[in-house]
Amino acid sequence: MKFYTALIFPILTLLIAGCDMPPEKISEPVSLRVATFNVSMDASNYLTNEQVQTQGATALTDALAQQHPQIKAIAEIIQHTRPDVLVLNEFDYVDVNQGINVFRNDYLQQSQNGESPIDYPYVYLAPVNTGVPSPYDLSGDGVASGTGNDAWGFGWYPGQYGMVVLSKYPIKTDDVRTFQLFKWKDMPGALAPINPNTSEPFYSAEAWQEFRLSSKSHWDVPIDVNGHDLHLLVSHPTPPVFDGKEDRNGRRNFDEIRFWADYIQPHLSDYIYDDNGVTGGLGEKQAFVIAGDLNASIESEDNVPGAIEQLLEHSLVNADKTPTSVGGAQHTPDNQQAATHTASWRKRADYVLPSVFGIELIQSGVFWPATGEPKAELVSSRGASSDHRLVWIDIQLK
């Protein structure tokens, strides 16, 4: 009897345990708004060009501490549009308690001009390449200054033109992948700039070996949206201008955009490695949103041809329902593309592009009220808020 009892007990235990096993988790569809906003909150927004080079590193923290009216207007735009997940471009990388936490607590969580406060309990930010000194003459002027055009990304101090992710949903911080240090040379077929006068490489062999692809950084930020994994793919490629006939910035911009086009395709992403040495890109059947100021437009003659089309025409990207605004159309009435513009300088530069897989794109828009409409004063001039407009999409995760 003792043997029989001992034998049957584990069997019953297994049966009971099996009955208690939770069913496979099935997440219900969830709707949310994802946005990107180049807030232009770097030092050049508050100081003269000369001052930026010597005082720039503290300019944002000083402005935040002074209840700056431009920053209050930016907060009002965010409160009015109310995104659930938000990418901020050109928010300097500074101490969180003097930077993003001040913006959250003293601006976003305080009513601006009658708008309801908004809280983002989850934040992600990390170092960027802008202003990080290189030991090389990257501009080709014969001087290795370590700053400006000789930094790994154009900037006068480390952290200028930084990036931030704000979210109402938990950010899976331990699973974030950053690509700040990825070398441009390691991208197959990289568009390395050529000196048109000599037909030789524009950069020295030593500089090219160390040259970082990202002018700021590339981030894969996974967010847990009620059980759905959403990969927010964040970047801010260099403007394709401010160079010479070698088109070094245009070529870098093209390849910074290409990085995401390759990253979302497993058979093209084997060459990619992150800052922890993990290789490869996004797996198959992963929901993602590519977001940020990509400094590229189908209208632009400055971009390398096809730069933004790498994403807009990508089979895994849903580029339907292009965000538009009445204010943009009014701003440049003789341009048929004007309604899609996201910057005061009359181009579409900012994008929020969802994946085909796992996401239904409901609607989209650009915050750009026309003259006479409510809130139009927030975008009435460069000094009112930013030279860019907040761009949003409403999606449902399936």
TrEMBL record:
Coiled coil (UniProt feature): none
Any one GO molecular function term: exonuclease activity
Protein keywords: Endonuclease, Exonuclease, Hydrolase, Nuclease
Keyword Nuclease assigned: yes
One Pfam family here: Exo_endo_phos
InterPro entries: Endo/exonu/phosph_ase_sf (IPR036691), Endo/exonuclease/phosphatase (IPR005135)
Residue ranges annotated for the Endonuclease/exonuclease/phosphatase domain, each copy included: 35-388
UniProt entry tagged with the keyword Transferase: no
Annotated Gene3D superfamilies: Endonuclease/exonuclease/phosphatase
Name of the protein in question: Endonuclease/exonuclease/phosphatase family protein
Protein source organism: Pseudidiomarina marina
Lineage of the species this protein comes from: Bacteria, Pseudomonadati, Pseudomonadota, Gammaproteobacteria, Alteromonadales
